[in-house]
Amino acid sequence: MTFTSSTRILLLLLLSFSMAGCGLFGGGDRDEFAGLSTEEQFYRRALDQLNSNNFNGAIATYQALESRFPFGRFAAQAQIEIVYAYYRNGDMEAARAAADRFIRLHPDNENIDYAYYMRGLSSFRDSSGFMGRLMPVDQTKRDPGRAQESFNDFSQLLALYPDSPYAADARARMIYLRNNLAAYEIHVANYYLARRAYIAALRRGQYVVENFQGTPAVADGVAIMVESYLRLGLNELADTSLSLLRENYPTHASLDNNGEFIIRTEITNPSLLYTVTFGLLGDNRVDPPLAPTRRPFTSGSQQIIDAQGETEEEEGRSFLSIITFGILK
Question: Residue 16: inside a domain, yes or no?
Fold first, then answer.
């Protein structure tokens, strides 16, 4: 069979495209680590990629090293360095998982303190979220879950390895996290106050005072206790908290020049009409009383007992006494 020159060119083009396709879909992965035969070669390439900020490439090389040499002399080092590669690549969840794995597999490794530190640092960075890294966000108003995890991780690092070179930085971050966690509780307490959930607000304020001593939010916690007690009509407890506020925080914003407590006169009214009309209808401000205007004189159980006594008394009266309203018995 003879082929014309044009047919031969067409066949050569088809063959070249076929070989290129095989390279793209079948042989690319096999050639990625071509020329690497020893464990040290894999490790050196991963380290070069890490130093050149090629974090995706470093992660792939570290994973290949571990899969080919799971018990080699560079395996443990690769497992700790991949934590940093994940962290620099922005994958905080993978960094935490890799740090947890290293802690579980190598509890006696000389780099174990670094694993604890990186686990806390990954949660610390993840607490700001994606949008928090792009624009300024008040961290005290965000979900404190990751911040609490980071605080716990750093606390564990300091408890186990107080002389670690990462201890100083961890301690500074813990102070920042603790201040944020306390401020978050104050935001929640103010939310409850605005919706007249005074007992819930009181408990949040007490929680800050009892568990976050030394933070700037303690003064706000005492002020919330004062207002909550006033709203509930517990004036003696309010006076006690107010004395505490005056003595320890005389310049707090809730105190006037004479040391008198400035109670908010308007709070948010979460009315359904205002909410569903996006503020077009209804009023969002009310002036609530400092305490409930009516209080039951007896408990519900006592009312039931009294009612039962009246019923028994009526059952023992004669018909003549009932129709004469007790004049005749």
Answer: no
Task: Give pLDDT tens digits for 160-176.
Answer: 999 999 999 999 999 99
Phi-psi category of 271—alpha, beta or left, where left has phi over 0 and alpha has psi -120 to 50? beta
CA distances from 71 to 82, 93, 147, 225 (A): 16, 25, 35, 59
Rounded to an integer, what distance in angstroms lies between the CA atom of residue 147 and that of residue 125?
9
pLDDT band at 286 (very low <50, low <70, confident <90, very high): low
Asked, for residue 232, whether it belongs to a domain, the answer is: yes
Instruction: Report the distance separating Cα 38 and Cα 157, nearest Å.
Output: 35
Tokens encoding 242: 């107010």
Residues facing 312 on adjacent strands: none
Q: What is the mean pLDDT of the chain?
A: 80
Residue 213 lies in a domain: yes
Cα 158 to Cα 117: distance, rounded to the nearest angstrom: 9
Measured distance CA(260)–CA(12) in Å, rounded: 94
The three-point CA angle 215-216-218 to 5° equals 75
- Domain presence at residue 217: yes
pLDDT tens profile 88-146: 999 999 999 999 999 999 999 999 999 999 999 999 987 655 455 555 566 777 778 89
Q: Which amino acid is at 226?
A: V
Q: What share of the chain is helix, strand, coil (3-state, %, to 5)?
A: 65, 0, 30
- Rounded to whole angstroms, the Cα distance separating 113 from 159 reads 11
Q: Name the domain count of the chain.
A: 1
- Can you give the residue range of the structural domain that contains 232? 196-266
Q: Name residue 290's amino acid.
A: L
- The residue among 96 and 30 whose pLDDT is bigger is 96
